[in-house]
Amino acid sequence: MSKVLQHAVDVLNRALAADPDAINALFAHRAPCNDELAHDPDVMVRAFDNEPQTVGLLGVINGCIGGDKVIAMEANHVSEHQTTGLKIESFQVFDPTQGRDGEKV
To answer: Domain map of the chain by residue range?
Structure first.
């Protein structure tokens, strides 16, 4: 695993521990984005049918880091609204080629 990736996860977890309200508010915000950004080869954008495509801070950070692993949030949604009801538990390194249980997807 990349030292830069692990350092980024460590910094995010320290920031979360220091001020969970601020970090939750920062990472819960998603902004509508255009097609050019949605098709960027590095930035991760959420796009679902019948919903506007949006980008969040973590998608931009992961785009900057690059590589085969990404930073993921372990979070719970405390309300039906997926942005304002976010409660982040931790940040961690995630291999998108592995499922949550470690099996290949």
So the answer is: 3-94
